[in-house]
């Protein structure tokens, strides 16, 4: 008897290919039948962005949401220009991982990435949204950069009663790293970035059971490599 397909969401990978493999293995992820929703920022930070991209492209049912670091990476892939801010924020590791060759499939993945994904009144977005505006009136800068939803969710969360911030049943975001070793829910917002881009871990979660699958601390997977500064 075949297992029912499962849907997982994963936080910011930031070049930590080895952590990605750990999460996939720990979750028992099926590359052919399960679905993975990636909240963006596969690039920048640790040295294996190219390998992480290759691994994601093996997944038959991949939903990729664009992150701000993906936006920078795509600009570099298309123009060949690497700005200093991007390079200092982990972009140099991405450039080094590719060398002189950028696979067409990687370029296509980022070009086709969604600004956000909605399924069964669940929102998946990299950074957040403006809760005071309809989705149709919000721009890409909000989806890629805005931390206001993360801040509001943490400030207004009440462990004794449910506080609703948006019209969605559940919202999954990356971008804003938390110091905890696994994702945390504030109000209806799940914060999925557990610091893989820095000195934390990578987290993946089954969105039906909320079971989490977490990598080892990233510096332990890349001994001797500095990566980005601690957050």
Summarize the structure.
The protein has 231 residues and is α/β, with parallel strands linked by helices. The protein has eight helices and ten strands.
Secondary-structure map with pairings?
Layout: E1 7-10, H1 17-27, E2 35-38, H2 49-57, E3 61-64, H3 68-79, H4 84-98, H5 104-111, E4 116-119, E5 122-125, H6 140-145, H7 148-156, E6 170-173, E7 184-186, E8 189-191, E9 203-206, E10 212-214, H8 218-221
Parallel strand pairs: 1-2, 2-3, 5-6, 6-8
Antiparallel strand pairs: 1-9, 4-5, 7-8, 9-10
Helix pairs in contact: 1-2
Provide a descriptive summary of the structure in words.
By secondary structure, the chain is of the alpha/beta class. The chain has a single domain (7-221), classed as Metallo-dependent phosphatases (Purple Acid Phosphatase, chain A, domain 2, 4-Layer Sandwich), CATH 3.60.21. The protein has helices at residues 17-27, 49-57, 68-79, 84-98, 104-111, 140-145, 148-156, 218-221, and strands spanning 7-10, 35-38, 61-64, 116-119, 122-125, 170-173, 184-186, 189-191, 203-206, 212-214. The strands form two sheets. It has a five-stranded mixed beta sheet. Strands 4-5-6-8-7 form a five-stranded mixed beta sheet. Helix 1 (17-27) packs parallel to helix 2 (49-57). The longest helix is centred in the middle third of the chain and has 15 residues, at 84-98. It is globular and about 50 Å long.
């Amino acid at each position: 008897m075949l297992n029912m397909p499962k849907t997982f969401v994963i936080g910011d990978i930031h070049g930590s290919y080895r952590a990605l493999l750990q999460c996939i293995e720990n979750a028992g992820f099926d590359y052919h039948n399960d679905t993975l929703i990636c909240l963006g920022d596969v690039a920048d930070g640790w040295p294996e962005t190219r390998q992480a991209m290759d691994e994601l492209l093996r997944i038959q049912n991949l939903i990729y949401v664009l992150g701000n670091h993906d936006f920078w990476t795509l600009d570099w892939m298309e123009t060949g220009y690497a700005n200093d801010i991007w390079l200092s924020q982990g972009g140099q590791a991405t450039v080094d991982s590719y060398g002189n060759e950028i696979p067409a499939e990687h370029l296509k993945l980022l070009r086709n990435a969604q600004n956000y994904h909605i399924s069964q009144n669940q929102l998946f977005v990299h950074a957040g949204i403006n809760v005071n505006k309809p989705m149709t009136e919000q721009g890409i800068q909000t989806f890629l950069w805005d931390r206001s939803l993360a801040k509001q969710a943490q400030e207004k969360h009440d462990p004794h009663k449910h506080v609703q911030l948006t019209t969605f049943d559940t919202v999954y975001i990356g971008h804003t790293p938390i110091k905890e070793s696994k994702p945390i829910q504030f109000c209806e917002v799940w914060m999925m970035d557990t610091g893989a881009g820095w000195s934390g871990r990578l987290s993946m979660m089954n969105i039906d059971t909320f079971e989490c699958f977490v990598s080892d601390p990233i510096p332990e997977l890349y001994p001797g490599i500095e990566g980005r500064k601690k957050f």
